[in-house]
Design a protein that fits this description.
The chain has 576 residues and is of the alpha/beta class. It is built from 14 helices and 30 strands. The two termini are 47 Å apart. The chain binds zinc ion. Zinc ion (ZN) binds next to loops.
Length: 576
């Protein structure tokens, strides 16, 4: 019987075209803010519809009048919008919209967090694109492996709580970093390129139905501090989703404005190009607003490299660190290869140094904090199939987790969550041994018993191999790629650029690698308008350590991580 009811419910949503936001099966926090929107499928008069929430008129429930838009964006269809509403009581909600003799319906669940917080602090680590192969590779490179047993463990390896996470969005099974991080930060699903909003039919990217982010919630309902650290541009999807609302993740100038509205206590990363006014060389803004000046006037200490970061962090209560115009450079380039790519910004801090500085500043608040740390370069290197760079940066992320773990030992009321936002289609299959017989590089790939073990060395015991260019190295391959030349070797000059655009706008194999000894052409298996490898739909692993972490188990939807954090900190109604 139940089965048939479920099938009938599915049929209903398929037949009727009015769209309601938040969408069906949305799970929301008691008192959390969101925009309510109904998109009617044709033009109506203002009194031509009825919206009931659990049988009551919507105005009575939201205690607000809606704005009726007779012809939304000239689409010949009407809409009802009520911004910034909330539901004050936990429970089940049924929303029914009747118009034109039709009825549309969605159900929501509203949850309350406990009266008493389990944790004072939450630190969320996001390895952008972090897949199982990245973890395995980082462990082998960093710790070594003998007779099949790891010679040491990563910092996340003994986290007691663990789950698989599904990352799909409202529009597609394949996600990007915007809607995946948005799910963590708002508890709502969204679509590719969107964060902090549902993807509605509105034409203005900044006018889609919003949901409050964890960053905003912390600010509005608690006395806790807020910190955001990333080695990407701060306007990039993952760090931006902590505070921002846009359909279009490329709205980077506007995103800086949203950072300024929320004013996280600690903001460290790259992307100064969007903080600087148009007239300053390197700026990517289209106006003369100087956000660095604005933050400074609001009492932020400014750090521009590793040295100033070290200098200002002790005294600062509010800290802005901008270390690169764009994405920061990876640890393999900066510390080991010391190649030209890092000459422009020679003294960038490590993610570990940024994590330590953030913890030092945020922990000055006796009420606790929420800190997000993103290791973004794992993804930035995985797209162009540059596995050495991706693995070195995975080690960097894990070392940052180690710093948080040390902090949690002295502050046991701290919950640490470590995960990614989506995976890549990457796998380790064995080794590549230059000394193996054969002319062709593929004959030097060792599989099964032939693989043996790689010969990376870490003589100075800093946790990174001294060089990735050893004679017997990991064989790491992607399952999806554009046309490219496979060289079977680390790229020591700069990050790999597998494909370049031709006159027709298609991505073709980059001829710069054609003449490297042993390089072979691989014909791409993804559309030719794709310049690099893409995200995979595979589940991701999330791990947790500390109070509140026990909620991480089994299979979870990415939106559920929002609740894990909200519950741990008892967010929601102002409980100050
Ligand atoms: Zn990506």
């Amino acid at each position: 019987m139940k089965k048939y009811l479920f099938a009938a419910a599915l049929l209903c949503t398929a037949v009727w075209a009015d769209t309601i936001y938040p969408i069906d099966r949305a799970v929301m926090l008691e008192g959390g803010k969101f925009d309510f929107k109904v998109e009617f499928d044709k033009q109506l008069k203002s009194g031509d519809f009825k919206v009931l929430i659990n049988g009551k008129d919507y105005r009575e429930v939201f205690k607000k009048q809606g704005v009726f838009i007779a012809n939304e964006d000239n689409l010949s269809a009407s809409a009802l919008v009520i911004k910034d509403v909330s539901l004050p009581k936990e429970g089940s909600y049924k929303v029914q919209v009747s118009a034109n003799g039709k009825r549309s319906e969605v159900s929501w669940q509203v949850f309350a967090t406990p009266q008493k917080a389990k944790a004072k602090n939450v630190i969320l680590f996001i390895g952008d694109g972090l897949s199982v192969a990245h973890r395995t590779g980082a462990r082998i490179l960093s710790k070594g492996i003998t007779e099949g047993k790891a010679n040491g463990y990563l910092n996340t390896d003994d986290f007691p709580y663990m789950a698989f996470i599904g990352t799909s969005g409202t529009d597609s099974i394949a996600t990007d970093s915007a809607n995946s991080m948005s799910a963590y930060m708002t508890g709502h699903k969204s679509g590719v390129n969107a964060m902090g909003v549902y993807v509605s039919r509105a034409k203005d990217s900044l006018n889609h139905p919003k949901q409050e982010t964890l960053g905003e919630l912390i600010r509005r309902t608690s006395d806790k501090s807020l910190g955001i650290v990333s080695d990407a541009e701060l306007e990039d999807a993952t760090p931006a989703a902590v505070v921002s609302h846009t359909r279009r993740r490329a709205d980077k100038s506007e995103i800086v404005g949203m950072f300024y509205d929320v004013k996280p206590d600690v903001i460290l990363g790259g992307g100064s190009a969007y903080f600087l006014p148009k007239s300053v060389p390197g700026s990517k803004r289209k106006d003369e607003v100087n956000y660095i000046e604005k933050f400074k006037q609001d009492g932020y200490a400014l750090a521009t490299d590793a040295a100033t970061l070290k200098e200002v962090k002790t005294k600062a209560d509010k800290l802005l660190g901008l270390f690169h115009l764009g994405n920061m450079d990876g640890v393999l380039d900066r510390k080991f290869l010391k190649n030209d790519v890092t000459k422009k910004f020679p003294n960038q801090p490590d993610l570990t140094e940024m994590t330590a500085a953030a913890l030092e500043v945020l922990s000055k608040n006796k009420n606790g904090f929420f800190l997000v740390v993103e290791g973004a370069l794992i993804d930035k290197a995985s797209h162009p199939l540059d596995w050495d760079r991706a693995l070195y940066d995975t080690i960097m992320l894990d070392k940052s987790v180690g710093i948080a773990k040390e902090f949690a030992k002295n502050n046991p009321d701290t919950l640490i969550i470590a995960t990614g936002d989506h995976t890549h289609g990457v796998s380790i299959i064995g080794t590549i041994d230059d000394n193996k017989a054969g002319d062709k590089m593929r004959e030097k790939v060792g599989v099964y018993a032939d693989a043996g073990f790689p010969n990376y060395e870490d003589k100075d015991k800093d946790g990174y191999p001294d060089t990735p260019a050893v004679s017997k190295r990991l064989a790491v391959f992607a399952n999806n790629f554009p046309d490219y030349y496979e060289t079977y070797r680390p790229k020591l000059d700069a990050q790999f650029v597998p494909a370049v655009q031709n006159e027709k706008g298609e991505y073709v194999a980059n001829a710069a690698y054609k003449d490297i000894a042993g390089a072979v052409f691989r014909e791409g298996n993804i559309p030719s308008n794709t310049d690099t490898g893409v995200h995979s739909v595979d589940d991701m692993v999330v791990q947790a350590y500390g109070p509140g972490g026990e909620a991480v188990r089994g299979y979870m939807d990415n939106t559920q991580l929002f609740r894990v954090i909200a519950d741990a900190l008892a967010l929601g109604k102002d409980k100050r």
